[in-house]
Amino acid sequence: MEHNFKKKFGQNFLKDTNLLNAIVQDGGISTQDEVLEIGAGAGALTKQLSLNAKRVVSYEIDLDLKSKLLDLGLNNVKFIFKDALKEPIEEIENNFEGNYKLVANLPYYITSPLIFKFLQESKKLISMTIMVQKEVAERIIAKEGGKDYGILSVMTQFYSVPKICRTVGRQMFYPAPNVDSAVVNLELNKTRFAINEKEFYEFIKKCFSMRRKTLLNNLQGYKNFDKKQIGNLLKDFDLSKRPETFSLEKFVEMFKKF
Length: 258
Ligand code: SAM
Description:
- The chain is of the alpha/beta class.
- It has helices at 17-26, 44-52, 66-70, 89-93, 111-121, 134-141, 151-159, 197-207, 215-219, 227-233, 248-257; strands at 13-14, 34-38, 55-59, 77-80, 100-105, 125-133, 160-168, 173-174, 181-188.
- It binds S-adenosylmethionine.
């Protein structure tokens, strides 16, 4: 393919049809589904999605790919040549009549902000099936106690049930990146905990502000409470432990005490 690959846009394209089909299957895509893709690239995944879904809306930031994508002649695909991270969520979701699924081989330089944007702001998203760096996938599914467990694990598991569908070697991409990848599926489950999401996110950021410190030290000053007050409020928890030792459920219990 004639294309000047742009590292700054995270352009690592796929072409193996078996792998592309497997990703579509991982997303549970059927002919009733409306699908959002972020980062169409040369349209390899877009094409497989278009064959399996009812409709596809696909964002691409790189205008150099526009004519190539439009020439594919995919009738049930709407291409939008804009920055998906900057596009307000309402604008993105106005493209869909009902609920939709996100399937994407994500540009790695904006993986976390994109995941957070959709988990926190979407109103109609059912699931996300995304290719991410393997190391990010491991952080997403990590449970308490391990080195991979942190804000990304707690927050993705707060909003969804994540699983790794498959790992994908770097040689499957062109050009090949320096790391291996994995496809992760996140089934959204936003109503599991009836608490204020934004405040919970702020609380979790405070809990993990210093990984090597105890939870008590990290929480000092949260909502202007001093250590003694926090110790009293959270007397049922061992605050001398580090944040990564607490489960999502424990963090929710603690948050409710404030
Ligand atoms: N889907 C294609 C594939 O699997 O072969 C391309 C995937 S490539 C990893 C990521 C794509 O996202 C690139 O084409 C890149 O130009 C595009 N991209 C990067 N940043 C973007 C953004 N902010 N909004 C929309 N597309 C973006």
